[in-house]
Design a protein that fits this description.
Length: 363
């Protein structure tokens, strides 16, 4: 997904944004000799909690680990049902399965591509789930109303959107727990890493307890979910430049929308993402109208531009039908967007897409 097969000169699909600040911070963490269990993880935790306005943040080794520990800490047990968006990262069902619970895919809403509140209501009646994971998909804060009640725990997945407010609440503070990922391609990149955010003392205690196995009795859920201080050093720098990065992403998204609007109108080949308040444009995705995304990815690659199908379908045969997710998996293509994308590179992406839509007979 991060352009592993990139050739020299290719425009990568994603790329971490960093400068001398990150380099110095990692060197300082190295020189300190405290590579794990040091002060940088705690500093990151208090800044994350402060930014979201929650009582606790707990740094962990990955986003998947954060989801798993949040589910466990909320009391998800073997055999429980957990609702997850049918169009989402496979890390979600993996975290549910790791708790020996059953992930129930729920269809998403066209346009926002996040879990549909109406479909989630139906699934609540049918499956009596213990929890639901709501993803702020592609950087757009998801609607969070109407999930609470019936003992259903809500986890807000902030891997794609953090640092903004929606419905008068900060992202990261809109459920019983929130999770973050600091994987190299995410909004805040630190190589690997994650965090659980919550107001609940009990949940925070449980996550802290289970991320660490040293000097504790054997337990199948103690899988070493600790974050390193090297990753925390990077994440701290990324958090410091978050507002700047969001502003840059919005600027790039505006330019895509301005330049691609006429191409969409002329060719009818794709729909632009809607401009909605709070969107931080972690991804800029197009919905193709007449052809599957794979063809466009291929013809862009021939031009040295790496676009991707942003998520791969993980659902099984017995899963409930989800027509919007089916369409999303088939038709959504993600364009390069990151603060270090130059104007020249963005111009190449726009021209490449125009060519892919006309020459390749997308009409
Ligand atoms: C990447 C991602 C995760 C998992 O994070 P990792 O750090 O890769 O384990 C979870 N949720 C979403 C929405 C993601 O994009």
């Amino acid at each position: 997904m991060s352009g592993i097969n990139a050739r020299p000169g290719d425009i990568p699909h994603s790329k971490p944004s960093f400068g001398e600040r990150e380099v110095q911070a990692v060197v300082a963490a190295l020189r300190s000799g405290q590579w794990s269990g040091g002060p940088r993880v705690s500093e990151l935790e208090s800044l994350l909690a402060g930014r979201a306005g929650v009582a606790h943040a707990i740094g962990v080794g990955s986003g998947l680990g954060a989801l798993r520990l949040a589910l466990l800490g909320l009391g998800v047990e073997p055999g429980d049902h957990v609702l997850v968006p049918a169009y989402s990262c496979v890390a979600l069902p993996n975290a549910v399965l790791a708790c020996r619970a059953k992930p129930i895919p729920v269809d998403v809403t066209r346009g926002s591509w996040s879990i549909s509140p109406e479909k989630a209501q139906e699934a609540c009646a049918a499956f009596q789930p213990k929890a639901i994971i709501v993803v702020n998909m592609f950087g757009l804060p998801a609607p969070m109303n109407g999930f609470e009640g019936n003992g259903l725990f809500v986890i807000e997945d902030c891997a794609h959107a953090f640092g903004v407010r929606a419905d008068h609440r900060h992202c990261g503070a809109r459920g019983d727990a929130a999770i973050m990922s600091f994987h190299a391609t995410k909004l805040l990149a630190a190589g690997e890493g994650g965090a659980v955010l919550t107001d609940s003392e009990t949940l925070a205690h449980s996550v802290r307890n289970f991320r660490e196995y040293a000097n504790k009795p054997p337990h199948g859920n103690r899988l070493n979910d600790k974050m390193t201080d090297l990753a925390a050093a990077l994440a701290l720098c990324q958090l410091e430049r978050l507002d700047e990065m969001i502003a840059e992403r919005r600027r790039l998204a505006r330019r895509y929308t301005e330049c691609l609007g006429p191409v969409a109108a002329q060719t009818g080949a794709f729909l632009l993402p809607e401009w909605r308040p709070g969107h931080i444009w972690y991804r800029y995705v197009l919905e193709l109208t007449q052809r599957s995304a794979a063809g466009v990815v291929e013809s862009m690659r021939e031009q040295g531009i790496l676009t991707v199908k942003p998520v791969e379908d993980w659902r099984g045969l017995g899963d409930p039908p989800c027509p919007v997710a089916d369409r999303a998996y088939d038709r959504i293509v993600s364009l390069p967007i990151y603060p270090s994308l130059t104007e020249e590179a963005q111009t190449r992406v726009i021209a490449g897409l125009e060519q892919a839509c006309t020459r390749r007979g997308l009409r």
